[in-house]
Design brief:
With 165 residues, the protein is an alpha/beta fold. The chain contains seven helices and five strands. Helix 5 links the parallel strand 3 (99-102) and strand 4 (123-127). The longest helix has 14 residues, at 62-75. It is globular, with a radius of gyration of 19 Å. The termini are far apart.
Length: 165
């Protein structure tokens, strides 16, 4: 019997890169599978040439920026990021489906929510359990508020279905 000389072959072989059609085990892929999405799926109809309206994310935490960007790519939902009130106002002109706001980032929330209220775009705020009392004044200005843990678990579905998901 021939024994493999490459230790990777003992674990299934190959270059370590998943083959086409293989299952990916990343957290984003697992969340995507749980939400029933697939690569290339999107919320616009199959015959639509126009891409789906973007989600506007007002997030500065690089971990969440990366997670939101990758999940949006996986579910086929465009995501725009804004950090300043000027960027938010410019993005609102593109009629986002909803706005995702990090309530723990220390933004000028009075100015931010003032601009968002004028646009009439639903807002999904997220916070932490530890900062829930501190962020409480902004909860009423959001259509929904979730913890970062819930956001991470439900992100694919939230991006595809919106604030009411």
């Amino acid at each position: 019997m021939n024994k493999p000389t490459d230790p990777r072959e003992h674990r299934g072989g190959g270059s370590g890169v998943p083959r086409a059609g293989s299952v990916t085990h990343s957290p984003a892929a697992a969340a995507l599978r749980a939400a029933g999405g697939t690569r290339g799926s999107h919320s616009a109809g199959a015959g639509d040439a126009t891409p789906a309206a973007p989600v506007l994310a007002v997030v500065s935490d690089l971990f969440f920026v990366a997670r939101i960007r990758e999940t949006g790519r996986l579910v086929g939902v465009p995501v725009e990021f804004a950090r300043t009130p000027e960027q938010v106002e410019a993005s609102l002109g593109r009629s986002p489906r909803f706005v995702l706001v990090d309530l723990t980032a220390g933004y000028d929330y009075e100015r931010l929510f003032g601009a968002l209220a004028g646009a009439g775009t639903p807002v999904l705020g997220f916070t932490t359990h530890a900062l829930a009392r501190q962020t409480q004044p902004w909860h009423s200005r959001c259509a929904r508020v979730v913890t970062k843990e819930i956001l991470t678990q439900e992100l694919p579905r939230l991006l595809k279905e919106g604030v009411t998901a």
